[in-house]
Design a protein that fits this description.
With about 325 residues, the protein is mainly β. It folds into 2 domains: about 180 residues, Spermadhesin, CUB domain (Jelly Rolls); about 120 residues, Sandwich (Jelly Rolls). About 10% of the residues lie in helices and about 40% in strands. It is elongated and about 60 Å long. InterPro entries: CRF-bd (IPR008435), CRF-BP_C (IPR056178), CRF-BP_N (IPR056177), Sperma_CUB_dom_sf (IPR035914). It is found in: Secreted.
Length: about 325
């Protein structure tokens, strides 16, 4: 069995074991999906090449990853009580999920729920601190709002669909589309290499760029609004207002990750601004305004250019 096949099998076995939510308001606490398994499944999905005029259709698995636009159907051959589908788009996309047809028993305990973000290992991305909506508003339950709200859209380039079906023959079909987001905030990277630019135009909010594997990050350009002339501080970025923080860890919740470096001054050109983060997950957190430090709101957009390269080294 190839390494890719083993990774995919490991991903499926761990995830089926871990998805054990028992309430209608799912909160996965023991999700042991590995970054390697998630990346392997995503890579196989991204390899599909389809003509533009072709409408991609396929059946969904109980645990699945979807990165290509199309129509997806799940039909239960037996009770399926703990299933989830990860949706992901390009960094500049948001996710649109439309219910085409649904044949489930809501009164009998079935449900289909869309979550605005991802849940991995019991942690949510974006975290509750970084997402513009309170947690309860990030869940959209078809049994409660599906008839009046057949289309659900995410706030960033990732979303999840949880479902629980008690009877064989229960089914649903959804259409997945990617919509352009001119100012992406809170992004999960699809690939281990590439370059990404984040622009945050006068928004009082945190934004993050998450990579779910060890990487070397080079920040090629950083413009921090009204703090363009701020020099490096030997005391860190406390009290500086706008800043960028690099975090590492084994999950996706920024509040549980470890600070690796912080930047609170503008520059142009990579120079010494290269960082190797060997944790399972790495994240660039842009904080345009930190209100609890008494800072004033920026009048210029925060601009970050991130050439990202994979690194196979391990500790």
């Amino acid at each position: 069995m190839s390494g890719t096949s083993r990774a995919q099998l490991c991903f499926l076995l761990l995830s089926v074991t871990a998805l054990r939510g028992h309430a209608r308001f799912l909160d996965i606490q023991d999700n042991e999906i590995s970054p390697e398994g998630l990346l392997s499944l995503l890579s196989s999905e991204l390899k599909r090449e389809l003509p533009e005029e072709f409408v991609y259709r396929r059946a969904l698995r109980c645990l699945d990853m979807v990165a290509i636009e199309g129509q997806f159907t799940f039909t239960a051959e037996r009770p399926q009580l703990n299933c989830a589908v990860f949706f992901i788009g390009e960094p500049s996309d948001i996710i649109s999920i439309e219910y085409d047809s649904v044949n489930i028993d809501c009164r009998g305990g079935d449900f289909i729920k869309v979550f605005d973000g991802w849940v991995m290992k019991g942690e949510k991305f974006p975290s509750t601190q970084d997402h513009p909506l309170p947690l309860y508003k990030r869940y959209s339950d078809y049994c409660e709002t599906g008839v009046t709200r057949p289309i659900v859209r995410s706030s960033q380039n990732v979303a999840m669909l949880f479902f629980r079906l008690h009877q064989s023959g229960s089914s649903f079909t959804v259409t997945f589309r990617k919509l352009i987001n001119p100012f992406p905030c809170n992004v999960v990277s699809q690939t281990p290499e590439g370059s990404f630019t984040m622009i945050i135009p006068q928004q009082h909010r945190n934004c993050s760029f998450s990579i779910i594997y060890p990487v070397e990050i080079q920040i090629g350009e950083l413009s921090l609004g009204q703090h363009n002339d701020l020099k490096r501080s030997i005391l860190g970025c406390a009290g500086s207002g706008d800043f960028v923080e690099l975090l590492g860890g084994n999950g996706m919740d920024t509040s549980k990750m470890y600070p690796m470096a912080d930047l609170c001054y503008s520059f142009n050109g990579p120079g010494e601004h290269s960082f190797f983060i060997c944790c399972a997950s790495s994240l660039v957190l842009a904080v345009p305004v930190v209100s609890n430090l008494g800072c004033k709101e920026s009048h210029k957009p925060l601009h970050i250019s991130l050439p990202i390269s994979s690194n196979e080294s391990r500790l």
